[in-house]
């Protein structure tokens, strides 16, 4: 069971309090009707599936209920950081530097 | 006293005799004995039969790595378990045990014919045959193979025991109570630090229990051990025995399985059999020690052939001589010490044969002083004895060639092939390993977890080295916790037996290697030649070799066989061991009871059951229930003598003719509140919400952004900024999650609050021509008529004295109301309505009648009439889409090419020509005469008997159905083909006249 | 190469098994191949076998980063069935079952396909409706599947508890008698041996680092740990690692990789005659020929390549098993392991050409890859050889996610109401 730091509650808590919510930083277009089929496919389905650091979303479901973002290494399952939704992507290189 | 018990030796209390049975015969041991030690005390080595060849086997080890001595253990009815290690099971008065994998008896087993035909049963033999004739496979070969499966027999009764689980948070978890673990614990045991140390055995001490001769700082090992344990307990360290660390999971999450009652003669009340501890430790110290390797030679599996270290344990810990005239074959110093201990306890050691040309002079002297013959540069080429080893054949080796052998009579053969560090838990962490050429073993390298490995488990032999390494591990752990170690810890050990040795592949022999039965994996009967055959056949990775031969796949999971197997495979491949690889260790460390994993989650507690406030009334009134998601819902309310169909028909008829009452509390309810609530609703649901007046409600449809229907429900507006949303029963959590997702991450600018109120309201539906008449007198705050409270209205009122949110809506086509009251008042309201309803012959109805009534009106059930691939247009609900809205969830998805293509499946009604009721799920075709596979054009989604319509009705998804009204389709059944006509989905009262409340005169 | 049969087994036994030859030689990569297949699991090796056997294309290499059959082929619970709902799925999986039935003879390697029957349990009214829809659809598709009452379920699988008081009572089951299990490793080895016999190179421990495309955009070959290998066609069949490989060719796929765990009990004498699946509680169980109960779990909630998996999921799976089969409560878990499964949004596979000329992909099998092995490999080989889909895999395109023509087995089993 992973340990996850909720950036809102500022506590590190077991995974069972959280639900995974897929890749982060996928913004729903302002006006979906103007999207092409290919763009809409991209929005709906195409996901990064990296072996390594992954920007992803979690929800502190059995806690504050809020969605937040995380960078987790999908090889080690280690969280490099978590941060509030609607904030910019943290710089990956500095994160990996921190971890080492 | 049993004839092999040594007075004054061991920790078993023979003054407290314990009687138990093995294969029906009663044996006596003492408190502290295992089944294996007690049987050995009676000179019984034969304890089991191997898997493939049914060869007679005895205990080869003294711990949890034992591959041979597996027994069935029983404690009365329901309490039987197969494959228990006789070496770990403590005896208690009345314990019944039995041997396994034999027929008719352990001493004479007909399955042993396999042994004679062993040349046929080489590695992978079954891949090469049993293929012809093809028809024989199902009927002859496969049943034959399957019949040979398994060791013990499965339990066949329900388990009366219960199992517990606990969380434990600590600063330091130490696995292993040998010298390394104890030394680490002494360092780490500080004020304010929570330290836990665990061991799988019945008592702490690890190797110290087998080495009483050692003196630690001048104190005899056992005295040091009890003093240390007392000191640790006094400083608050939690010492847990009979507790196996089974797995090391993410971020220092370690599973421990504690065996609570398996050693007790009487089961205490309210005590679990086992307890799973889920430990989250800041730091972990792994001090699991090392396991001794067998030597691989022809006949190394006879009962009486045993690891030397285990023989030493049986003597020193259990006070049992495994033989009175043992012989020894070894490649490591440690077996010499075992021989000395046995000799000092009265055994006549026949010979110590060592594969090495030179050994330490002290060892030679030790043997000489005890009168033990020594043979250096020797190999063992055979043993004899059917049910117990009788002799061993030893041959000199000179320059790689094997000389003439001579037989040495013995009643036990002790062997040692050196020691392998236990890296199991370290390996669970995905820790990397490095190969140590000198020690011929893998050693731990790096781990991603906050963990240190200490002592013999990283290749340090001897008590002093382990103690010192434990100190270092303790200090490093304190350092990592930002603590300083108090004082210095250093140890000096006398009579330490570190020792060195060499590692072999299979021993040299003068026999044809193809004929040698030199076992590597005892339980699975894998021999050295099997491994070499696998390599010869192209298996180059250790994983291939393992899987082809099944080496390491027995219940000891390779604890005895992995490294020997690797050394032999590497030799056969001509590659260094790391290039061949080590198979990954998987949790659990030792086999662990299912019950311990399941813990409390059994029976009613397997998963929570959600019940409404009216559940008790429904039970008292004979309802039959159905599980819907986590909910238990009243399905129908049979009167005495009624079956389901009769009950449902009565409930339907009564509701249509007068009034019915239904518990709708399971519906999901979400309060959407805030200045931007209407904008939020406009974006989430397909419908337009801006113009919905306060006090009005509307059917809402929710799509995914892919355009497919996700959920539906009636939504009432209770204020400019307040919507009361209802969802399907199963969809409540999903819908709220979806709403939160969009609100928080896509539209954080919207000022809206979402609150689940499913559990806050009890919801009771009243439907039928008499519903208004029944309800009106109970309502304060509004008049119940078509002018003041028209269909699709909502209001906050008082019902029967209770504050309520009242909806006028209908899921039946009749005059209908849904009354929401604060949840705890649900039953009170129900009973008030029930009492008032007696004048109208009110019926309670369940989910089945609800389904019938709604189907007669063509109302869909999301998840039954839709399946995640259905659009609003497919359901004929284009009217629910706010076309003027610039966007809503699903709008773009609906424009995708295949969602607007011709020929999509549409929801339609079906009426059968012969008035038979269709089966739900039945498939529909246009051409009934086509061959299989048929082109199916849809399926029946809902189907019911309908008294109101006068014939059975069905809803179905049919390709292009909306354009085929009145046409005939076919439903091929196994026995006949049914014709049905496509109709509207509304079977009853299409003008909705029944919704009107007649004016009371 | 020695043919496998009882006579040769006896002959070799008499000579101490000294004369068996390698089942597949250790190959070093040539400079160029007609087809390079990335991923030496059952699907990749199977495609090589069918390319050689049915399409005469033998200048083929199958390359793997590890040892052959070391991915999901060797980590699954070996369940084989074809009673899927949608026509597209039923045809694909039933094609596979047809091939499974003759596979041992086709490969001259006993893969021990065991038609012991797969029973899928219904635990609520929704399950009943859903499974009956399956049964009806399968019947008209000519796929064997029939409905059993709870009592019939109990007769078919005696360890089953059909107590109506269970938290998830058994309300019936859908039985496919033709379905069953096979020996997973033997499938990889059998295909490898057969392909190698026909001239295919099997190159192990050679990670593919990139797919190289030429100036015209078409595939040129693969970069590997052993250097560049030229190829006219590249076919990727790398399960959980497919996204990573395809990314290097600039092809994005709707895939996410999740950890999937499975476990076995200690071996016991035959007690469990068939395969039982319960989707409602996420538990899948059969008994291996060694006697171990083989139990499948669901996927963890997060994407991962760690192959570790968490304890809570295993606890839930075991609890589900003992809920349905209470007699197993005192049995012991021997070993659990993890695989990585690649999952598409509609839970159906992709066997398809790609926008890149000469590049083909077979992926997205989720938890269903093993049972499809011969069918997927067979149609994938066809697609590679002819540069067009076989009629059976034609619906399993990449494009369906754009147009919306999904094959949504997951949604079809969706629970609501």
UniProtKB/TrEMBL annotation, chain A:
<dbReference type="InterPro" id="IPR038561">
    <property type="entry name" value="SoxD_sf"/>
</dbReference>
<protein>
    <submittedName>
        <fullName>Sarcosine oxidase subunit delta</fullName>
    </submittedName>
</protein>
<dbReference type="GO" id="GO:0008115">
    <property type="term" value="F:sarcosine oxidase activity"/>
</dbReference>
<dbReference type="GO" id="GO:0046653">
    <property type="term" value="P:tetrahydrofolate metabolic process"/>
</dbReference>
<dbReference type="Pfam" id="PF04267">
    <property type="entry name" value="SoxD"/>
</dbReference>
<dbReference type="InterPro" id="IPR006279">
    <property type="entry name" value="SoxD"/>
</dbReference>
Automatic annotation (TrEMBL), chain B:
<dbReference type="InterPro" id="IPR006222">
    <property type="entry name" value="GCVT_N"/>
</dbReference>
<dbReference type="Pfam" id="PF07992">
    <property type="entry name" value="Pyr_redox_2"/>
</dbReference>
<dbReference type="GO" id="GO:0046653">
    <property type="term" value="P:tetrahydrofolate metabolic process"/>
</dbReference>
<dbReference type="GO" id="GO:0008115">
    <property type="term" value="F:sarcosine oxidase activity"/>
</dbReference>
<dbReference type="Pfam" id="PF08669">
    <property type="entry name" value="GCV_T_C"/>
</dbReference>
<dbReference type="InterPro" id="IPR027266">
    <property type="entry name" value="TrmE/GcvT-like"/>
</dbReference>
<feature type="region of interest" description="Disordered">
    <location>
        <begin position="62"/>
        <end position="82"/>
    </location>
</feature>
<feature type="domain" description="FAD/NAD(P)-binding">
    <location>
        <begin position="171"/>
        <end position="431"/>
    </location>
</feature>
<dbReference type="InterPro" id="IPR013977">
    <property type="entry name" value="GcvT_C"/>
</dbReference>
<dbReference type="InterPro" id="IPR042204">
    <property type="entry name" value="2Fe-2S-bd_N"/>
</dbReference>
<protein>
    <submittedName>
        <fullName>Sarcosine oxidase subunit alpha</fullName>
    </submittedName>
</protein>
<dbReference type="InterPro" id="IPR041854">
    <property type="entry name" value="BFD-like_2Fe2S-bd_dom_sf"/>
</dbReference>
<feature type="domain" description="Aminomethyltransferase C-terminal">
    <location>
        <begin position="905"/>
        <end position="989"/>
    </location>
</feature>
<comment type="similarity">
    <text>Belongs to the GcvT family.</text>
</comment>
<keyword id="KW-0560">Oxidoreductase</keyword>
UniProtKB/TrEMBL annotation, chain C:
<dbReference type="InterPro" id="IPR036188">
    <property type="entry name" value="FAD/NAD-bd_sf"/>
</dbReference>
<keyword id="KW-0274">FAD</keyword>
<dbReference type="InterPro" id="IPR006076">
    <property type="entry name" value="FAD-dep_OxRdtase"/>
</dbReference>
<dbReference type="InterPro" id="IPR001763">
    <property type="entry name" value="Rhodanese-like_dom"/>
</dbReference>
<dbReference type="GO" id="GO:0005737">
    <property type="term" value="C:cytoplasm"/>
</dbReference>
<dbReference type="InterPro" id="IPR006278">
    <property type="entry name" value="SoxB"/>
</dbReference>
<keyword id="KW-0963">Cytoplasm</keyword>
<dbReference type="Pfam" id="PF01266">
    <property type="entry name" value="DAO"/>
</dbReference>
<comment type="similarity">
    <text>Belongs to the SoxB family.</text>
</comment>
<feature type="domain" description="Rhodanese">
    <location>
        <begin position="35"/>
        <end position="79"/>
    </location>
</feature>
<dbReference type="GO" id="GO:0046653">
    <property type="term" value="P:tetrahydrofolate metabolic process"/>
</dbReference>
<keyword id="KW-0285">Flavoprotein</keyword>
<keyword id="KW-0288">FMN</keyword>
<dbReference type="GO" id="GO:0008115">
    <property type="term" value="F:sarcosine oxidase activity"/>
</dbReference>
<keyword id="KW-0547">Nucleotide-binding</keyword>
